[in-house]
């Protein structure tokens, strides 16, 4: 069953974000976890208590640099358990050290150790593919190293991170996703997340030829106007149905 989520506008009033999501029939929202805390403005700490009291489903999207795992795993797991979550997304990047041929193996091992901790709390881990600007967990070869080491970790596929449809096909040959990040892009631009229909991605082609039969979570990473968010959701719903 398809579930539709959206990445919140972290700079908005959180209650307004919840009301918008409820009114437009989103099933859940995505909240970023960065440098040890939830990325939500205009909410006093403890932020996780406010999120829980708001009573609208969310999923945590943790942006982790290569050396963040040991630093922030304990706090991430504490928040996940407080929120009674059974799933979490980690978006791996590498900005603190130069990337070389061994870095992907360090990442794979960091993910392995983190996944062992999460499994101890019965929490499923999703790992995101990167775009060309990040240069780690971006190529299909990188993804294969990560998922060979972590076969029980799931892929969250960010479609806006692909270079072309050949890149997409090679990623899918490594692992079929259980969760999607959805936004549009132009192929001439290394990294962007546009409202659906404003870029060059052919989502009808993607869902009919590459993601045929997809039945999981779809998270819109569109933080433009309310109208563009609603239109993006309507377009994808029509294609998927």
From TrEMBL:
Tree of life domain: Bacteria
Domain Xylose isomerase-like TIM barrel: start-end pairs: 74-228
InterPro entries documented for this protein: Xyl_isomerase-like_sf, Xyl_isomerase-like_TIM-brl
Protein name, per record: Xylose isomerase-like TIM barrel domain-containing protein
Lineage, top ranks: Bacteria, Bacillati, Bacillota, Clostridia, Eubacteriales
